[in-house]
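Researcher: Next entry in the queue.
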Amino acid sequence: MAEFHDDSVVLDIHDRPSLGHWFGLSIQHLFAMFGSTVLVPILVGLDPSIALFSSGVGTLIYILITRGKIPAYMGSSFSFIVVMQSLMKTTGYPGIAQGTVAVGVVYLIVALIVNFAGSAWIDKALPPIVVGPIVMVIGLSLAGTAATDATMRAVSATKSVYDLKYFAVALITLAATIVYNMYLKKFISLLPILLGLITGYIVALLFGVVDFTPVTQAAWFSLPDFQIPFVTYHPQFYWGAVLSMAPIAFVTMTEHMGHIMVLNEMTHRNFFKDPGLNHTLAGDGTASIIAGFVGGPPVTSYGENIGVMAMTKVHSVYVLAGAGMFAVLFAFIGKLSALIRTIPSPVIGGISFLLFGVIASNGLKVLIDNKVDFGLKRNLMIGSTILVIGIGNASLQVGGYTFSGLAIATVLGILMNFILPKHAANEEANGDAK
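Model: Structure for this entry, 434 residues:
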């Protein structure tokens, strides 16, 4: 049986671009994820170059474990920031490292369970009425982050102020990216995000919101600040760190599955079946374990890169692998990584307006393509609950753990899908009356 090939896209999963095209497309993915990936270590107090290195290696490992079948990028996870900030003040990185490895181990244990129990339950647990709103939440729940990046200027570590100049840069970046999407042709039309970032950066330069100091101070070659057990430090066991971070793995696991849902719809495949949920969980978990052994934070799949694929219709796993290799390379080139770190937040915000919106639109597409009937109260109840709890980030805090609105919305959506009858009582009554 011939392998499925999606002819509606520019490059399908196993299509290999030419060398020149591969370079531009991979760099575009690197730029798209860079802001978020280096922000996590900056907020925690880790070396951003290590996060860049671990994200690149993690992506390559993930692609290897998923047998080159899933185009996904692994970047620093935001879900662990609060716990890591706390651990940094007490145990330092050794505690974070153990927690990060524990997170990966939880993934591997669940992957092992799925391997023996199977994943047939996924289709029943995640029908279109659950998947569509969850995908929308993944995009729309990030809307606030995009708006903050686009409008707020940091004046200190704890305070930001509204800046009209920032918003102008963000809107010009957004407008340029839209124009590139709509009017460019041939290969250059596949690089709207990269071109938008470059345009936004130039505009930001003209507006005087770019700080070149990190670039001038950086060395051309710079070895990342690796934190390797028994080499750079002598670890001891930190139960508190493990118990603080390991449970959050179930939160990021839910978000990761949401990203797989988006990729399923976008690529017209079912990655839960092939290569299997066990492989995708094992890939994510192994990437986090590696991050913990080199000095990085836990990693997970990134919505920004899914947005790039949705917009460009370039789904090639070779392009994502290329982005991973460039991330590793850039981690050692001090001036290059410093230059990318100088991309101001309004440029990232302007791009994010489009990227996150495209993800949300794909969720809407799931509902439309599957002709989900919102005239049925059951569908209305499930969709409404997922959307408001998820977008509003009605998080659940239990003890020292915080479960995101997306995680809560996903669990509630699945439960409601199993519990609610096909028709409401009055709908059944009306049907009988007819």
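Model: The beta strands are 74-76, 152-154, 160-162, 299-301, 396-398, 401-403.
Researcher: Noted, moving on.
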